[in-house]
Amino acid sequence: MKAKVSWLEGMCFEGVSESGHRIMLDGTNPGQGASPMEYVLLGAGGCSAIDVVAILEKGRQAVTGCEVELNAERAENPPKVFTAIHLNFMVTGRDLSEKQVERAVALSMEKYCSVIKMLEKAVDISSSYEIHPA
Fold this sequence. Notes:
By secondary structure, the chain is an alpha+beta fold.
């Protein structure tokens, strides 16, 4: 996997992935784009949500929505690394099995989400879930 980050102006940079997708990164708060740490947090949420939906669909669950609320704590002093991240999955669907939702979240956290697996070596990561009818 490759990527490129190019300085635009001020503290604003453009990131381009190997697949050609572009993002704006900004060290100004607030800026023109998310900060690099915000993108790390979004990556964790996106990676795990993809897993949860894929696992539930493979289990023939009628999933109609999935959102992840992420709450991260950071160290007070530089480098201001994440010290804790909590992911709360809100899964919507028709007649969803709580057992299968619980299993999907657990599998993502414990086995499949590469972002979570990488971060958990340095960050306290926890998760929860809610099931909402469609």
